[in-house]
Design brief:
primosome; binds zinc ion; DNA binding; zinc ion binding; 22 helices; 5 domains; helicase; GIY-YIG endonuclease; binds adenosine-5'-diphosphate; PriA_3primeBD_sf; alpha/beta
């Protein structure tokens, strides 16, 4: 066995893993993440390194391999564990070790650390009095003034000494030299959680909640650290379950990380944790300054907190003894990094948990296909919460078939059904949410009369409209002309689907002049806390209707909302990638789940041109299992994740011809090194955005049954790229099981 070791994590140039042999006396005690001492370089200088993994074979001449000298006294320091995690990420997602380390280790702080200085009296009362007389005798007024203040209060804040008593530093120094007083400093941490006392609501767990907690706890107490998937309908009390699990883990002296999508990280959510854990909880989010973020990491490292809440990056909190990672809304796209290494927080959390003997709890009302697939395979433990915690039933959902609206003379974007229900709610003083699903790429082409959508004959994803090219498949590059008439029904009403939130706000105001309307989208939330302000205004019932994009689906509870209108379900349904059905089901279910959270039962209207599409039908029935079965059949048929694995190789270059040649070489090389395992190669195709800032882009897809096969392919391709100068002007990135098409 050989140990893989990183020598110096601060040096940009040493982006390399070195192999060392393991002396037999260390064989049993060495593990990943340990700090070791190794001979390094020409002079074999003893240097600090971190073990990031082990290998059975070594890639160099065994005679030249050096031996690990010793394990440093620190053993597994938290940095070591995170370095090992970074090595895992580099291996699984591609990129360099330095890129992985930058994601994982807290930013080295350039910013000044905030320090509080204090002056402490070193003399006892009697000695102090004597000294004071001496100063007065010598007419050393400033010294006397300071000492007399210290005799009143032996520890003084330096700011105060300086400003209020008007004492210059030279005088403080003089007292220090004479052994009268000493200046001390203490690190002060910025704490982003603003204190606000509020008692925690006492609740009695439902049987389902209790079972979930006990199941987890029995495993945990017996050191069976597993991954759990809590599938719980919206409002079933998942958050309460997380809090209880964390409370028990924290009692054993270990720490927990809670990942939440940034968009759902509201004041309301943080307060629920705060009420239970007080000052022992901290948060991370993108609106904190670099200094504040750094401070939270240091507080975690020094054992000052038990719980860290934050988005994806909070996963790398340097806790000394991590016991649990919770990932709420685990199906969210934001858990996948868009920077290299393009890691997924779910997989990475599990990797970290395995290294540190911790558990992972995933939660969602609409679990990702990946998570449910693994739960059904027994890899994760499934915990179900089928009922809402209170009396409320799930909303009643109607489907409005937009194809009939045109025939019935309704040209408004609001269906007749939705208009009727809106009038009813406005009359009763209840609130309405209108949701415009815009996350999908809106370039798909559909027929306004029959709902027909143009699809790729090879990939079963919708074609996208390009201004100059016609219709294009972003997976395989297939092209066809834009149709003049619908190939299914002959109608001329075929074209691109477009609508915006602003437009909808205007329509609502025109049709319901009495309604007070709020709009939430990129434009209205640009200012700081804009998001929070609009949500609070709506929660305080300062408006009747809230119009918005997917931002409004999460976070706040609005008990007075009894109607949700989903204006264009098709928008994400025909986004041009294989996750379109899944994303649509999630959005529709989550949106409908916003209705009727208070004492009255809610209703929801899904407007669509494809009322028979399984994602729409199963979302309307709020039947996850039925959706899952249909969707997994499609993934099996097409060999898409999670059944098989997909690797996107993204290449970009300012020279288009060079890019095309490079991609051809890459593909040919990939074919050559495939070996015995089956690897499908698709493309290279032009991605949705074929050129950014005059840099051309191409994407090549590799499909294989096993993830490992793709990791191996990636390693071969990385080597090939490194040794061939032709790739010097190209940038190549890898994305495993991508969340979107490029
Ligand atoms: P989820 O995270 O599944 O959407 P929450 O944990 O936010 O659900 O619970 C929804 C609401 O129900 C919250 O206001 C919560 O305090 C309350 N709640 C959860 N469990 C119970 C319970 N057992 N008894 C009473 N109220 C509960
Ligand atoms: Zn048609
Ligand atoms: Zn295709």
């Amino acid at each position: 066995m050989y140990a893989n070791i990183i020598i110096d994590i601060t040096h940009e140039k040493l982006d390399k893993i070195f192999q060392y042999s393991i002396p037999s006396r260390l064989e049993d005690s060495l593990s990943a993440g340990m700090e070791v001492v190794v001979p390094f370089g020409k002079g074999n200088r003893l240097t600090k390194g971190y073990v990031v993994g082990f290998a059975e074979h070594c890639g160099y001449d065994p005679a030249k391999i050096k031996e690990i000298q010793d394990i440093s006294r620190k053993g597994v320091a938290i940095e070591g564990k995170l370095v090992a995690l970074a090595a895992w990420m580099k291996d699984h997602y591609g990129g360099t070790m330095i890129q992985a380390l930058k994601m994982v280790l807290p930013i080295r702080q350039q910013e000044k650390e905030k320090v509080r200085k204090r002056l402490r009296l070193l003399l006892d009362e009697e000695e102090g009095r004597k000294k004071l007389e001496f100063y007065l005798h010598k007419n050393q007024r400033a010294r006397a003034r300071l000492l007399s203040a210290l005799l009143d209060d032996p520890v003084l804040d330096y700011e105060l000494v300086h400003k209020k008593l008007n004492i210059p530093l030279s005088v403080v120094r003089a007292l220090e030299e004479q052994g009268v007083a000493a200046l001390e400093s203490e690190r002060v941490y910025r704490n982003p959680v603003k204190h606000k006392e509020q008692a925690r609501k006492e609740i009695t767990f439902t049987e389902e909640q209790q079972n979930a907690v006990e199941h987890f706890w029995e495993d945990y107490e017996n050191r069976r650290y597993r991954t759990y998937l809590i599938h719980g309908v919206t409002g079933s009390g998942k958050t309460e379950v997380y809090i209880e699990m964390i409370r028990r883990v924290a009692e054993t002296g270990r720490q927990a990380i809670v990942l939440i999508p940034e968009i759902a990280l509201t004041f309301q959510t943080v307060m629920r944790f705060y009420r239970c854990f007080g000052d022992r909880v901290s948060i991370m989010h993108s609106r904190l300054s670099a200094g504040e973020r750094y401070d939270q990491m240091m507080r975690a490292k020094e054992g000052k907190i038990d719980v860290m809440i934050g988005p994806r990056s909070a996963l790398f909190t340097p806790f000394p003894d991590l016991g649990l990672v919770v990932i709420d809304e685990e199906h969210e796209n934001t858990y996948k990094s868009e920077q290299v290494p393009r890691y997924h927080a779910r997989e990475t959390a599990i990797a970290r948990a395995v290294m540190e003997h911790a558990s992972v709890v995933l939660g969602s009302a609409t679990p990702s296909l990946e998570a449910m697939y693994r739960a059904k395979a027994g890899e994760y433990t499934l915990l179900e919460l089928k009922n809402r915690s209170g009396q409320q039933e799930l909303a009643q959902v109607h489907i409005a078939d937009l194809r009939t609206e045109l025939k019935n003379g309704n040209r408004s974007i609001l269906s007749i059904r939705l208009q009727e229900l809106m009038a009813d709610r406005l009359e009763k003083g209840e609130q309405i949410i209108l949701f415009l699903n815009r996350r999908g790429y809106a370039g798909f082409v559909s027929c306004r009369e029959c709902g027909h959508v143009a699809k790729c004959p090879h990939c079963d994803v919708s074609l996208s409209s390009h201004r100059n090219k016609g219709l294009v498949c972003h997976y395989c590059g297939y092209e066809e002309e834009k149709p003049e008439r619908c190939p299914a029904c002959g109608s001329r009403h075929i074209g691109e689907f477009r609508a915006g939130t602003q437009q909808i706000e205007d329509i609502v105001k025109a049709q319901f002049p009495q309604a007070r309307v709020l709009r939430m989208d990129m434009d209205t939330t640009r200012e700081k806390d804009g998001h929070e302000k609009i949500l609070s205004a709506f929660a305080n019932e300062e408006a009747d209707v809230l119009v918005g994009t997917q931002m409004i689906v999460k976070g706040h509870d609005f008990p007075n909302v009894t109607l949700v209108g989903i204006l264009a379900a098709d928008m994400s349904l025909y986004a041009d990638d294989y996750r379109a059905g899944e994303r649509t089901f999630q959005l529709l279910t989550q949106a409908a789940g916003r209705s009727g959270r208070g004492s009255r039962r809610g209703e929801a209207v899904i407007q669509t041109y494809s009322p028979e599409h399984y994602a729409v039908v199963t979302a309307a029935a709020q039947d996850y299992e039925a959706f899952y079965q249909e969707e997994i059949r499609y993934r099996e048929l097409m060999g898409y994740p999670p059944v098989e694995n997909l690797l996107a190789v993204l290449a970009s270059c300012p020279d288009e011809a060079h890019l095309e040649t490079g991609c051809r070489f890459l593909k040919e090389y990939a074919v050559r090194v495939t070996g015995r395992e089956r690897v499908d190669l698709i493309g290279p195709a032009s991605p949705g955005i074929g050129k950014i800032n005059d840099i051309y882009r191409k994407v090549l897809y590799l499909k294989a049954e096993r993830y490992d096969t793709l990791v191996r392919m990636k390693n071969r391709l990385e080597q090939y790229i490194e040794v061939n100068a032709g790739f010097d002007t190209m940038r190549i990135q890898f994305d495993f099981n991508p969340m979107q098409v490029f």
